[in-house]
Amino acid sequence: MSPVSESTTPSKVELTDEEIFAGHLGGKLSVETTAPLDTQRALSIAYTPGVAQVSRAIHADESLADRYTWTSRLVVVVSDGTAVLGLGDIGPRASLPVMEGKAALFKNFAGLNSIPLVLDTKDPDEIVETLIRLRPSFGAVNLEDISAPRCFEIERRVIEALDCPVMHDDQHGTAIVVLAALKGAVKVQNRDITGLRVVISGAGAAGVACANILLAAGISDVIVLDSKGIVSSSRTDLNEVKVDLAARTNPAGLTGGTAEALAGADVFLGVSAGTVPEELIATMAEDSIVFALSNPDPEIHPEVARKHAAIVATGRSDFPNQINNVLAFPGVFKGALDAGARRITEGMKLAAADAILSVVGDDLSVDKIVPSPLDPRVAPAVAEAVAAAARAEGVV
Hints:
Shape: globular
Distance between the termini: 32 Å
CATH topology of the largest domain: Rossmann fold
CATH class of the largest domain: Alpha Beta
Largest sheet: 6 strands, mixed
Number of helices: 16
CATH architecture of the largest domain: 3-Layer(aba) Sandwich
Structural class: alpha/beta
Number of strands: 10
């Protein structure tokens, strides 16, 4: 697959129901053997009696499982189906086509084996316990489409319980690509990222993770909005996650809603299902940046946003500057597994963002602040950077 050229203009893809359902018929995954099974001798090596020798060896030294099984290179995509795409709580069975798609992306972009694992429970205790019991079967966990605020607790507890890479992609995959895109935007504008005032609309999984990674990148003036307005220390209706967020954001102590937050802001980052009026985008600072990432309907149409903003990005493929998680998660997990990392750190995420941006190179422009999701250079670059960061941080 060759990189998408800079001259390629994104266009809306028209899909028919017949085409969509045909593409999912029988599922999107299969298991293929890597050892021949075409002779009696081959069968005796792959299965009984030969396999018993390998099992005995692993029984004596469990670390050999990494070499003689697929465990160390297998990612499980885990969901309870409570926050699927823009569909909400549709349950584990209805979420399975999405999880199959995610597993297919791991294989296509990073060469990693991956299987979906949908759980018929919403209980954090049961989800964590299930993964603990299944730990011998996999090498990494991609948590997916789990509703907030439960997703924060579940991710934290799974990370604490398991000695392998764990990441909730809705949080950190989004945050990594947002940071890469923002670094690309300020590079085009020759601005210092640390001087930006950023407004994040949405205090769910993606919004909280984006706030955290932007703070880690040195941006001190971050304001987060939830459905009731600015997340501030003066509010008494915040959950535990938002209380923590309020203590680390909104340094000017602003109160109110979207209008108060956006006046004079440099960046609008939309990761909610809401909308933002054009007249409020017009109140932002000169050379403003708008990332309207809700799908399928951005918080503001990009053509409208462009009337007032210098750089605009969305989560859609039919507009320039698509902020797509596939730029991050395949390479992040590949790099973590390549390095033998026990966890995915903030430093590894920052390294991933820099690697994504590095692929754009001299093609960087107002309409190309991140590479195409189809660019085959991305996952290898991210994997190399993440593995190097893991070794440097000593988490291997």
